[in-house]
Specification:
Shape: elongated
Distance between the termini: 87 Å
Order of helices and strands: HHHHH
């Protein structure tokens, strides 16, 4: 089985192995193992939704193309978010630097003014 398909639930449920999930969908498990997965599905709404979604795919050969499409869309979305975050960071940095420089300059001017009035 393809590694991308096996990683569908990699972060969702540590109780169910991804290979076990794929075997469940293929009907390769014993009755006891199937009941165990069904109990886990009853406890986990996310797992239940994932299994239902995977069961709706009629042609199991198309599952890889769906996974590829989802991964491509996710990568594109993450790249957009990263670009926005980078643009925002670049826009914020000049103002912060300008504020620090202004505070330092004001401190120097205040020091010089106070020094001048105290000496005279």
């Amino acid at each position: 089985m393809n590694k991308d398909l096996l990683n569908i639930l990699s972060n969702s449920n540590k109780d169910i192995d991804n290979q076990q999930l794929m075997d469940y969908l293929s009907g390769k498990l014993s009755d006891e193992q199937m009941h165990e997965i069904e109990r886990s599905m009853a406890d986990s709404e996310f797992l239940n939704d994932a299994v239902e979604g995977l069961q709706r795919i009629r042609n199991k050969k198309d599952m890889q193309s769906y996974v590829d499409e989802l991964n491509a869309a996710m990568q594109k979305n993450l790249a957009k978010k990263k670009q926005r975050r980078l643009k925002r960071r670049l826009k914020e940095e000049p103002w912060g630097l300008l504020a620090v420089v202004l505070v330092i300059l004001l401190c120097i001017v205040a020091y010089l003014v106070i020094r001048k009035f105290l000496v005279h």
